[in-house]
Amino acid sequence: MYEGGSMDGLDEQPTLRERAYESFTRHLLARDVRPGQFVSQRRLVELTGLTLGAIRELIPRLEAEGLIKTVPQRGLQIAHIDLNLIREAFQLRVFLEKEAVALFTRSASDETIAGLLKMHRNIADAINGGNNSHDLELHAQAVDWGMHDAFIDALGNTIISNVYRVNSIKMRLISQERFRIDGRVGPVMGEHLKVLEAIERRSAEDAVSALVAHIHHARDRALRL
């Protein structure tokens, strides 16, 4: 029999761990801590506003996911963006998204596909009309990530979604450090439209080919810088 309050304690603990993880990744993507930077547990407490105990429980998960590593004598180091990480992250992305886009091509509703095409064409039209604003770039980046997320979501596989989520954090860090969408909205939207138009035709082979080409272009830009 559970004593009063003990069930609450069991319920709160996973929530606290998730809060710590979400807070850390939010600050990481907001560049409050930077790739390669060394941080202390106390600094993470200050950053997240959570307890030292929560941070200590968080560290093994972050290490397992490759988002931080413990360096003897120096402390915790945020994942460093190097060529090996770039190659591995993009390779994993290709493996996951090839199957995902093929399934999406076969299973997505006409309305879903039409919605994605409309968003991309609106951005492309705005660029062609001379809109190069920062707000449009931010919107384009969100639409970019949203399309790739939609492909993975179509798989309906929690294990794959979790692997993709971690890799997506690394991809966003790589994007921030190595190749932002700024100034390249037009070409990126053009590559996306090739993928989406193949999906609209229900050609899984063309969609996969266009998607792989798109991901490889992004990888090559990151590796060149």
From TrEMBL:
Transmembrane spans: none
Q: What UniProt keywords apply to this chain's record, in alphabetical order?
A: DNA-binding, Plasmid, Transcription, Transcription regulation
The protein's name in its UniProt record = GntR family transcriptional regulator protein
What species is this protein from? Rhizobium gallicum bv. gallicum R602sp
* Domain of life, per lineage: Bacteria
Phylogenetic classification of the source organism: Bacteria, Pseudomonadati, Pseudomonadota, Alphaproteobacteria, Hyphomicrobiales
- Which GO molecular function, any one, fits this protein according to its record? DNA binding
Sorted alphabetically, which InterPro entries does this protein's record hold?
GntR_C (IPR011711), TF_FadR/GntR_C (IPR008920), Tscrpt_reg_HTH_GntR (IPR000524), WH-like_DNA-bd_sf (IPR036388), WH_DNA-bd_sf (IPR036390)
Q: Where is the HTH gntR-type domain positioned along the sequence?
A: 14-81
